[in-house]
TrEMBL record:
Keywords: Membrane, Transmembrane, Transmembrane helix. It holds the Pfam family RabGAP-TBC. The keyword Membrane applies. One of its GO terms (molecular function) is GTPase activator activity. Residues 1-34 are annotated as: Disordered. PROSITE patterns: TBC_RABGAP. InterPro entries: Rab-GAP-TBC_dom, Rab-GAP_TBC_sf, Rab_GAP_TBC_domain. It comes from Trichomonas vaginalis (strain ATCC PRA-98 / G3). The chain crosses the membrane at residues 249-266. Residues 65-253 form the Rab-GAP TBC domain. SUPFAM superfamilies: Ypt/Rab-GAP domain of gyp1p (SSF47923). This is TBC domain containing protein.
Length: 329
């Protein structure tokens, strides 16, 4: 997938022709970009003060998408990398990791990371990704490395300088906003929480679909593990859609991911109800990015907003599955 022209995101262009409606939407969004850049620049001037004063306004802006030219900078602010200790020696960490057992898996995973992005066919980009994953494995020696981390770290280095991306990755894994490392630690505790909550949500919103899944004795983990562990980044979405998913994830964490999981079920409700065999459903659930129903990503985002899980609702869901309350950032 390394051949072909690239779009403004650095993604390899697909052969699919865009509709007139899509082209018009892109023109409108492009025209709005300068105004959004000014707005974001004002928030960035005093980020901590603005987050205290205008947190809900910033949250709504994130849902509308961060300007392409500012993504790396805004992500580092959202993830509060400035709060990390100043004495973290990035270069020392990845050098000390050389030869350790967890690096064997990292080396195998590098070329499988984000093949839709042109730069990931280049040795230099893969070397930067390796450094980040090596360094984090050394930094978090208890965890080391688990498959799935590469997709998240890869998107970071596509927009950020290497050491900034490493710090952003530390925060995705450990900051209360995401706590993503607990999807990978022994017993996968956060994955269990997400899957159990998803079951409750499906029982409430799409009981017939859940019954079909259960009748096949098919665990939700068969498709949802990849969803949650990679924050849906292992899939080949439209570039802007991929960034919007990622940005809601780094701001809202698991709460945002659960809402997006509901979007997939909502967009395929009719199809799943009419499916004659479970294989049809499983194909979509394991490869939602290939579904025609997810192609109109702007509509999917609107649906996500309608299915949004509010703070209070999320805390109740955590309690229902026996998980502790979480700090809502």
């Amino acid at each position: 997938m390394s051949e072909g022209k690239v779009d403004r995101y650095g993604f390899i262009k697909t052969q699919r022709e865009k509709s007139e409606k899509e082209i018009e939407e892109e023109k409108r969004e492009s025209a709005e970009e300068p105004e959004k850049e000014i707005l974001w620049s004002n928030y960035l001037k005093n980020w901590k003060r603005e987050m205290k004063k205008s947190r809900d306004d910033i949250a709504e802006l994130i849902k509308r998408g961060i300007p392409e030219t500012m993504r790396g900078t805004v992500w580092s602010k959202i993830l509060d990398i400035e709060s990390l200790p100043a004495d973290i020696n990035y270069k020392d960490l990845y050098q000390k990791a050389e030869g350790q057992e967890f690096t064997i898996t990292i080396d195998k995973d590098l070329t499988r990371s984000l093949p839709q992005i042109k730069s990931f066919s280049q040795k230099e980009t893969l070397e930067r990704l390796k450094h980040i994953l090596y360094a984090y494995g050394q930094y978090d020696h208890e965890l080391g490395y688990t498959q799935g981390e590469n997709f998240i770290a890869g998107l970071l280095i596509h927009y950020q300088e290497e050491e900034i991306a490493f710090k952003s990755f530390i925060q995705i894994m450990n900051h209360p906003r995401c706590l993503h490392r607990f999807y990978f630690t022994e017993g996968f505790p956060r994955l269990d929480i997400a899957i159990n909550i998803l079951r409750i949500l499906l029982q409430k919103k799409y009981p017939k679909i859940l019954k079909k899944i259960d009748n096949e004795n098919m665990p939700i983990s068969m498709f949802a593990t990849q969803w949650f562990m990679t924050a849906f980044m292992a899939f080949n979405w439209d570039p802007e859609f991929q960034m919007r998913i990622f940005e809601r994830f780094i701001f809202y964490g698991t709460r945002g991911l659960l809402g997006f999981a509901l979007v997939i079920f909502s967009r395929h409700k009719k199809m799943f109800h009419e499916a004659k065999n479970f294989e049809e459903m499983l194909l979509v659930l394991q490869h939602p990015d290939t579904s025609e129903q997810m192609r109109d990503w702007r509509y999917a985002l609107k649906k996500w907003n309608k299915l949004w899980i509010r703070k209070g609702q999320y805390q109740k869901l955590l309690k229902a599955v026996g998980a502790p309350a979480e700090k809502m950032c």
